[in-house]
Amino acid sequence: MCDRVMRCAQEQSARLLRLALHRRRLVAAIVATWPQEPGARTGAEWDALRALLPDGVTAADIRNRTRQIRAYRDANGVFPADLIELEEPPNVAAQVVLAAADRQLLTLERTGNRSTRLRLRLPLVESPASSRDWAWHVLPVALPPTVPPEAALCAPTVRVAKGRVRVDLPFKVPVGFAPAAGHVIGCGFDWGLNTLLTGVTGRLADGRVISDGRPFAYDASGICAKLHRLWAEREHLAAKHRHLERLLAAITPADSRYAALSTGCQALGVEHERLCARIQHVNKALAWSAARWAVDQAAAAGATVIYVEDLATLEARGRRGSVNARLSGQVRGRIVEAIRHLAAKHTIAVVTVPARGTSRYCPRCGEGTSVLRHCPAPDRLAERGWKWAWCPACGLSCDRDWAAAERIVSRGLLGQNATRTHRTTGVRTIATIVEGNVARARRTRKPTRAARRARRTRADLHPRPAARDRAKNRPTPKRPTRTSANPRNTSMTFSRVPDRRTVPAPPPTGDGQRPAGHAPKPGRHQPYRTGHVRNSHHRTGFHHAQATPVLTFTEYGGGLGQATPVRVA
């Protein structure tokens, strides 16, 4: 084959080899500095391990590899000599990475706002021997509405999925630069058990964080129930499919039952794949819907940074079978990636902060010392629970995820000078925990009706009549009203016409049409919206979740004197 095709194959192989080399160095460093107690390394042991580790290794990678090596040692009695003893060979996807190709192998031309043309040179036979065995193929590609007209298209990746050619086409759009530090207003989001996402807005003023005292939440209980129904159906189909496979393995193709069992097993396999694809589609839609809602909240509040918990430091402890816990564990990674993608368009930075202790300590008076008590509800403080948080020191009583979101935004704004940016991925992380109390200050409200009337002058209260009113030579007639002398005044006018009939429409008497209007039906309620953002059905196309609407707030109250801690009951 030609050198251009060889470069594409080498690029795909080099990606796998670079990843394997990174893992190999990680395993070798952990084995060389194996501690006396793997679960509790000393300071000297951590320093020796960090000296041998490659760049970009997180604490989660070290913890997972340590568990993997410990399990291998317990099973075999010795440490692994290399990475190949711990892992199987990687599975190579059936795809062609065209990032290393040039114009003599492919050309990409945009033919419209929603279409492009990929011209690719492909072989005509399995083992091409000369240039005659190669030919140019034109692949028309339809672009989704999310690709803007001014986007620059990049070299795609071509793969085959279910008998159809799929094109993974990346594109680039110009975005503004979001600094890592220097932020004054930020939004913090917590991965909660009550809701999928709970956020608050915080403002940094004179070394402390002030919150407006209004949380916003994204509740995915409805879509969670739907996903659980799909999971149960998928597990049921998988069990039936395994049962048929065992029956087929016990008989020969010459058996009369083999054809029927084989057909049923194949149908169950197709249905199982369809359910898996549907679950993946729902998870993806949920992740992008939650991310779009979070970015809209931050943009409406005037925030320049979004703080979320570091997924590498999160580890499930107890309540592993919780509905929302399992749901959020599946879509958290997608939500973070979607938030980074959407926030870049609004020039909003996304930074991760340590998650340890965010739900444990009080955001009002804690600073790492005052421990919150978790209870089922505010009127059941003596019972053990997980939904509600109560502080015995200052009397704080609020939702547990709300308190965690306030501590997240406090850690982010106070520790933003310690933000680190990864050189390769550009992911921003704060590894240093800076604790601080959060005060609540009400935002400036619109003046009340009495205050607006007090500011009015005499001219505003008694305006001068217009020229046409001064020219009138007769008084304005009074509006007719019902009196005791005339209780059935038919000349009365009403300011509002009813939306529908108050009595059933009469039946048709002849060939004429029925009078317009619907008769009121008992038990029928007015339709209501369950969207989570402004015009949610038109903006996201996902209406299975309920969340706080996006509202544009005014500025915070002036002066630090108004930022006083209050008790929220």
Automatic annotation (TrEMBL):
Keywords: DNA-binding. Residues 482-494 have a biased composition (Polar residues). Residues 333-407 form the Cas12f1-like TNB domain. The keyword Acetylation does not apply. This is Zinc ribbon domain-containing protein. Coiled coil: none annotated. Residues 457-472 have a biased composition (Basic and acidic residues). Residues 440-456, 521-542 have a biased composition (Basic residues). Residues 438-542 are annotated as: Disordered.
